[in-house]
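COURSE: Structural Biology Practicum
ASSIGNMENT: Worksheet 4, Part C
STUDENT ID: 0417
INSTRUCTIONS: Below are two proteins. For each, the amino acid sequence is given first, followed by its structure token string. Answer the questions at the end about the second protein only.

PROTEIN I
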Amino acid sequence: MADDGVLDDIDLDLVAALQHAPRAPFDVLARVLDSSARTVGRRYGRMLDDGLLRVICEVDWSLLAEGPPAHVWLGAEPGRAREVAEALARRDDTTHVALASGRGEVYAVVHGMTRGATARALVDEIPAVPGIRSVRAESVLRRLTSSAAWRLRRLTSEQEEALATHAGAAAEESGTELGALEREVAAVLRDDARTPYSDVARVLDISESRARRVATAMFGSGMLRPRVEIEPGKLGYRVEAVLGISCPPAVTTRVGAAIAAHPATRFLALTAASSTFVCDGVFRGEDELADFVSGGFPGSDDVTAVECTLQLEVLKRYWRAPAA
């Protein structure tokens, strides 16, 4: 990695490998990348220490809150957009906040612990923040893909196959009864998905075998999704956009699958709004975004409208301020 914090090819290959197998041991990653465990460990530690990268667990909504989140676009009074964004970033119920252009000067994702808390935030609390002149909220009905599934496409098919056995169990049907232990395991792994099972066991005062069994079941059910958290700009994606995409109801499933499969898509959800979908996408530049909104994916012939919001500066991402 260069002194200016720019990631080189070795770093990018490691990021790509971690995206496929976030909990894989360093010796496994080294073997796949034709490197040494020492080099891989040193590279990972440096990116971690410099705040460039975190390997976290994306936690299923049912473990965090009663209902789904809402995506919110805020119009701000002239000259007060940053003030508004900073006020929202300080809230405990915002998972994402960005200065933006398009639908509003500020874009945020709000997720209260209860449906009532989210409603109060949208109806009473956020509109009362000084500097806000308009609020547009869209509630999520169903998540179709998340950032945990997004990949930096650098590895060969052979490398991906070698990592597959370390990627975790395939998603099974999620359980509906979640006990206190599952929530405690999630709390330990949430900020560091690479935490060894022995450390989980020590923190929770349970046996290592029990910690492994509970965590593995949660990984398999999709309740916990290990993922690499890194700013898209560090990976060469200079443009991040939130897109409201509309289509006729009869083709929703087909169009949603096509958008979810697109390499630019980091997040996609079905919404209760004028737009059928809300999509968070990353692009190398404006030309790539222009190609996408101009029909750059299979099934785009069925799209009836696209609204685009550019994220100019992200102040909060997945509950935390992003790395500088």
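PROTEIN II
(use this one for the questions)
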Amino acid sequence: MNGRYRATMVTAGALAFSFALGGVPGTAYAADERPDDQPLVTSLSREGYWPLEAAPGGVAPNVQSGGLPLTLNGDAWIYHPDDPLFGDPALVGQGDLRLDGDGDWAETSAAPVGGDGSFTLAVRARLAATDDRTQTVLSLPGSHTDRFAIRYQGESGEWEVVVSTEDEANAPQVVITEEQTLPNDDPNDVGEHLAVVFDAPAHELRFYVDGQLSTTSTAVDTTLWTASGGLQVGRSVIRGEYFAGTVDEVRAYSGVADRVRIQQMAALTGLPDL
């Protein structure tokens, strides 16, 4: 399979890992094994929330105090409807990021999460066209490959998460392909909410689409190397794969977000306190 490993089918019981937010890391148990008096907990720290409502001077601010902003590059721009009542609405809120797929992207100056431990990254995205061109929505680069990428796979016509197991060119990859919820390029639609969770203690990678975790959206992953470049919105530094479409509600956390928190992120209302 050319170094690519698809997520194996898992049972509903194996998927029933549920985490509540807490201040310290906890032990992971299967749902039917956890003692009643020992809740599942893990720390979760927000490193970045970019609602993409505005970008004064080409810089989209980070709601997280002290967090890294996103710098727009190429022809990337923040869209606002001409008529707030009757114009084409933004994906969420009053604005969103528009990319034409021809050398446009946004990036932070450093990685908001390194990848050497648990992390959660999320974004809402709508493709301009579901064609045969692979397009990256979010990625974290290393020196020779991406630590991870969320992208539209042109060959399959599906969303996927790709994790390189080491920072080497042509390194083996863990790949999760979402086979149930397909990308929607309807210009009047809200696209899809995409979230990847890497649970380092459980050695598990999870891919949520529109707040849901399908039976094929979990894979075993023991990858722990650290990204060296900033978060990329709309491209892969390594492969290009520029994204053509609309992006909104970019979020980055250190730690594991549970299903309820992912569903909150997927809401069509911006939640600055989340």
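ANSWER KEY EXCERPT:
Q1: The helical segments are 12-15, 259-265.
Q2: The CA atoms of residues 158 and 182 lie 6 Å apart.
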